Amino acid sequence: MTTTLVTGGTGTLGRPVTDKLRADGREVRVLSRHSEPYAADLRRGGPALDAALAGVDTVVHCASSPNGGDEKAAAQLIAAARRAGVAHLVYISIVGVHRVPLQYYRAKLAVERRIEESGLGWTVLRATQFHDLMVTFLSRLTAPPLALLPAALSDQPVEVSEVAARLAELALASPAGRVPDLGGPEIRSVPSLARAYLNATGRHRRLLEVPLFGRTYDAFRTGGHLTPEQAVGKGTFEEYLARRFG
């Protein structure tokens, strides 16, 4: 039986990827900093990472942090994967990393390039933001009685289980390079998403759109993080809210 290693396998995306692969009969190892028996810090590498990769043919790289360190972690993972003879490295990235000059997006793009140049067989999937991240974003914005929302902004949230299923499918296939993006089913204005969130949580807030400035905001405002031609997701934001708060 072939073996797959899922980095960040206890996280929001890594956990359903692991569950899906196991449901498909795959032997899966979960790598995270605190998950035995394959606990390792990707940024440090070392014997623990080599042990986790021994005998692995496919890696699904879900581990990521907006606080930094993704490039260093990718470099360690790629080097260890080469030593272990890994045949296929699957990476989850974000729609718009080449258009939005946010530091986290730049790091994700840099990781993509490292993987492309790694000499390994590789697949990269870019997805739009998950529903739960949108809830986190909106919970902060709507905490005060007057909720200040970034003006003229839209988003395309996607169901994390759908991204997980696609990653598992890609992991079971041959390396495919950059595959088509995976976007949520609807492009929605931020006020529309905020109203849906407030309705689901039974709260009332006054919403006020405020224009922002800068290259990053301009990239978001002009839809650099959206993929309307790949709105292939099925689960809507309201359906997610109903499950979480219903």
From TrEMBL:
It comes from Streptomyces seoulensis. One of its GO terms (molecular function) is protein-containing complex binding. The lineage of its organism: Bacteria, Bacillati, Actinomycetota, Actinomycetes, Kitasatosporales. This is NAD-dependent epimerase/dehydratase family protein. InterPro entries: ComplexI_NDUFA9_subunit, NAD(P)-bd_dom, NAD(P)-bd_dom_sf. Transmembrane segments: none annotated. Coiled coil: none annotated. Residues 8-132 form the NAD(P)-binding domain. Pfam families: NAD_binding_10.
